[in-house]
Amino acid sequence: MTKQTKITIASVLFLLVAIADVYAVITQNKVIEMIFKPLLMTTLVVVYLLSVKKPNFWFVSGLFFSFWGDVFLLDKESFFVFGLGSFLLAHVIYIKITTGFLQKDLTAKMITSAIPFVLLFGCLLYLIYDNLEEMLIPVIVYGVTIATFGASALLNYRQEKSMANSWLLLGAIIFIASDSLIALNNFYAAKHLFDIAIIVLYIISQYLICKAMIAKNE
Predict the structure, then answer these.
(1) What is the rounded distance in angstroms from the CA atom of residue 135 to the CA atom of residue 139?
(2) Nearest-5° angle of CA 118, CA 168, CA 158?
(3) How far apart, in Å, are the Cα atoms of 160 and each of 83, 101, 153, 163?
(4) I need a surface site. Which of 44, 163, 208, 209 has the fewest CB within 10 A?
(5) From the CB of residue 85, how many other CB atoms can be counted at a distance below 10 Å?
(6) What is the C-alpha separation between 87 and 23, in angstroms, rounded?
């Protein structure tokens, strides 16, 4: 079996797992979701490992913490903070990876790249502030972190407008959109449509970030 065949099989498997998990969320079938949600990052890391010659330890670690975030958020009422913490670590790792691609003399662009994400976080915080209570500090820390990831991805794209950097930026933006909907769903207005959008955006974002990392490795 050739390497490309293995990658294709792994990619199809990831797609099938993603479809099954989205179906589980749409139909609110917790049994199916508990089976397939943990398989999302498991199959995606297989796609990544098969696609690169030398795996990036930090990216694999980011997928590892994303896996635990998925697992903890299967029971949001009991383990929401643990899920938040796991994804926080994943974002910190993605920031480390992204900033590693940057040059050193980008101060002006760094400030302007941060503006849209700071504004987005400010608007989101305004909407959910009254309902945060003891979650205020954790949400602020998480919000600052994902804004930093978005800003570093935009800065990286502005530095070099390559296809890999385009995927990384788009993945970061979609990931932030998914996280923003989680905040709205938990602290503003719970809607089943949000649940569906969150998982779809999350899957797309992680896949795009993975594609970027594969392209960077090449």
Answers:
(1) 6
(2) 65
(3) 33, 10, 11, 9
(4) 163
(5) 18
(6) 23
pLDDT, tens only, 17-31: 999 999 999 999 999
Residue 63's pLDDT is what? 96
Could you write out the three-class secondary structure of 76-115?
Answer: HHHHHHHHHHHHHHHHHHHHHHHHCCCCCCCHHHHHHHHH
pLDDT band for position 106 (50/70/90)? low
CA distance 123 to 63: 29
pLDDT at 133: 86
Average pLDDT in the 64-85 region? 92
Q: How many CB atoms lie within 10 A of CB 176?
A: 23
Q: Are 151 and 107 in contact (CB under 8 A)?
A: no
**Residues 6 or more apart whose Cβ sits within 8 Å of residue 17:** 36, 39, 40, 43
Q: What is the mean pLDDT of residues 155-161?
A: 90
